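ok, trying the design again with the full structure, not the truncated one.
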């Protein structure tokens, strides 16, 4: 995808939209480029509709939900919203390795800006898998004569230049459906960014990314894994299982309605069965009218523990593919609605054999002095993504043209 330079204004109003399976989230932020500041003007959440596993399957229902979200935000902000910066996720996101090669153009084999431009164009033009659209091309290294790996090869010498990159793409139909929804509600899409990438970028400090770390987003219908090492994105995968599967398990085991099972999970659930006593009971009458039975908290915890162990087993399989199972010095960072369960860190540590901590955005308190609700990490991360890019251009920290985009993507991983 060809890069188009962002239009720089001193103050930019940004609507960040997070398309989630359980809820839609949005914030209105005013980004002041001259001052290097962000002001959050409005935020809202509404229940999702027409969305399954992060993918829009019913355009009309999804449009109604987005319209409801916009109405809430506009009521607070008092201005019309016409543009959206959208986070997308779901199991249709995929990462792959790409490598492009060119011959250095100058007779003296000194690498110049024109070679970098051609190199980036070459990677962009590489064929994509059928029915998929590239969202991001993230450089890892330039390689000179297949020997020296460097971040910036300008003014170095070599006859052959390569670019090794991680490509994130998405199923075409997912984007088509998204754009139809936005058209219905009168929004123009300014940016479409992979949710796991933008969120992990904001939640993981640079030092962690250098040492090696994975971020796990326990969502309603999906669990996303993002891995960094040497400050480079190594892998993103979206597993089609989430905390809603836990709720389904409880509903099926107790033969109760999904809504009652969700309330039991949130009110009494525990991620680690070993921490719960068999003697503690839950009276089902507080959730189901006329119900006289009781169930032990340990039984509920056993259900939760089993499903989380399965999900984390899939996560560990992905880490094994990378050769990093139990071998990331900065450990695991967890976030998302499912991560709020008691003893979540304990079960992740047990299954993945690494240190675990909850995510936060404290390293961005210069931008967001207010406390950020974990449910809004995604949309705040989109603001960070935009802020880093725009402020970088405004301060002329990067070169122009495609290489500027390459450098900007690399530098975007700096907190």
């Amino acid at each position: 995808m060809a890069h188009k330079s962002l239009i720089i204004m001193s103050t930019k109003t940004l609507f960040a939209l997070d398309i989630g399976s359980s809820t839609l989230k949005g914030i209105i932020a005013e980004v002041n480029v001259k001052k290097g500041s962000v002001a959050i003007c409005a935020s809202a959440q509404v229940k999702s509709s027409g969305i399954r596993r992060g993918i829009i399957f019913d355009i009309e229902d999804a449009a109604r939900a987005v319209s409801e979200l916009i109405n809430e935000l506009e009521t607070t902000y008092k201005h019309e919203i016409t543009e959206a910066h959208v986070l997308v996720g779901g199991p249709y996101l995929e990462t792959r390795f790409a490598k492009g090669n060119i011959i250095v153009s100058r007779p003296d084999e000194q690498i110049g800006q024109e070679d970098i431009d051609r190199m980036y164009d070459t990677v962009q033009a590489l064929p994509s898998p059928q029915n998929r659209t590239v969202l991001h091309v993230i450089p890892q290294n330039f390689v000179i004569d297949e020997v020296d790996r460097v971040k910036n090869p300008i003014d170095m010498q070599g006859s052959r230049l390569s670019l090794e990159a991680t490509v994130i793409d998405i199923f075409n139909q997912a984007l088509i459906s998204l754009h139809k929804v936005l058209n219905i509600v009168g929004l123009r899409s300014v940016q479409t960014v992979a949710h796991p990438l933008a969120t992990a970028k904001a939640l993981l400090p640079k030092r962690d990314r250098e040492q090696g770390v994975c971020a796990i987003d326990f969502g309603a219908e999906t669990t996303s894994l993002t891995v960094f090492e040497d400050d480079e994105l190594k892998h993103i995968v979206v597993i089609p299982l989430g905390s809603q599967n836990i709720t389904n398990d409880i509903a099926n085991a107790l033969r109760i309605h999904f809504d009652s099972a969700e309330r039991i999970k949130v009110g009494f659930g525990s991620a680690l069965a070993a921490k719960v006593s068999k003697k503690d009971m839950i009276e089902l009458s507080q959730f189901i009218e006329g119900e006289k039975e009781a169930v032990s908290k340990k039984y509920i915890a056993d259900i939760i523990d089993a499903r989380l162990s399965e999900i984390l087993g899939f996560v560990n399989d992905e880490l094994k593919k990378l050769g990093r199972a139990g071998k990331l010095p900065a450990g695991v960072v967890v976030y998302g609605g499912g991560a709020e369960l008691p003893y979540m860190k304990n079960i992740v540590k047990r299954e993945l054999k690494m240190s675990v901590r909850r995510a936060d955005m404290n390293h961005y308190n210069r931008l967001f002095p207010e406390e950020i609700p974990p449910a809004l990490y995604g949309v705040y991360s989109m603001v960070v993504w935009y802020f880093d890019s725009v402020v970088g251009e405004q301060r002329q920290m990067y070169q122009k043209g495609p290489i500027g985009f390459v450098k900007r993507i690399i530098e975007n991983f700096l907190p």
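Keeping the full-length input from now on. Residues 11-90+172-195+362-411 form a domain with the Nucleotidyltransferase; domain 5 fold (CATH 3.30.420.40).
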